[in-house]
Amino acid sequence: MTTTAAPARPDQLATRAGVLLFVCVLAVGLQLRPAVATVPPLLDVLRERDGFGLTGAILLTTLPVVCFGLAGAFGSLVDRRWGAERGITASLAVLAAGLLLRALVPGLPALLAGTAVAAAAIGVVHVLLPALFKRRAPGSVAALTAAMSITISIGAAVSAALVVPVWHAASLPVALGLWGGLALLAALLWLLGMRGSAAAVVPVAGVPAVRVRLSRDRLAWQVTLYFGLQSVAYYAVLSWLPTYFGDRGLTRTVAGASIAVLSLAGVGGALLMKSLATRLPDQRGAVLTGGLFGLAGLAGVLVLPDAAALWAVGVLGVGLGGALNTSLLLTTLRAADSATAARLSGMAQTVGYLLAAAGPFAFGALHALTGGWTAAMLLLGAVLVLDVLAGLAAGRLGHVGPGRGAPTPD
To answer: Domain 19-201+214-394: which topology?
Structure first.
């Protein structure tokens, strides 16, 4: 018999197992952005140390998103063969190895190889978590997704804010390698927390699992496009914002701190969009609100003077953080069971991140071609508009596949 996730229980996160799962998700979420967020504040330092130019910088900032997408294609396979619990443990260990490689071995090849390994591990984790939520706590998907997206933002903010001060206080290997040690600690916590507690998947009466052909499903493509376009915007901003403010004359520390402002504001965006996504009849209100915040913040970053532009970064962060939360939530809500959630998440992240790889590349290339930032910012604004349009389509209630009932936000 083909099986699906167990029925939702309203008190799932109030149990001991639920609290443990929540804590473990927080620990994992904190590890999912330092690999990316710690490079832009030190990009000039790395270029001086390893002797690479703008082309190498564009490659370094684009590579993680490509690896997210390529690795995401294997996430559902890992879930089927080994389970999300063991898959996440192994991925965190691989993440730590990649981060330590690029910290301890100088040179562009090691920097690229370590970044690729770390990003591939993150890509697998991104696919496994929604499937885990759908199976272990189907009544608390929105809460767990919000916890994940909030800790992603916090991890990016803290790592971006600390990496330059740690470099000044210690050394470049310490500044880069610190996050690998924390990933190992998270792997140990996850291993201990999930040991012997893998939830059995049991049949749900009257809800037979159907293997949906996602490549032919319109809703699946709408979810994928929304995820991909918000990722284009997020990674373009994450990769080049410190360079943009550096060109405006801000110090390296302040320019690096702009990523921390962006990411901390994303926490507020995730909380706001989680509330809208679960209180309104569907998720279109969350999509539209996030898009408006993003466009307003982007305009402010471009036209306002330095101090006000940093405030505008916060507005932009609310929009981008909210869109991230909503896109992750939709990959779970639009699936009727945990197996479909893993496959939909894999599709959204494989196609979406490969699409998103164009963001840092196009942003950097336009800057190089024009010698300024206006064209790149206008392109980013167009991406945000298209993202809202895709999200409004994906935000309607429904499940992928024929004959599936409408999901109810928790």
So the answer is: Growth Hormone; Chain: A; (1.20.1250)
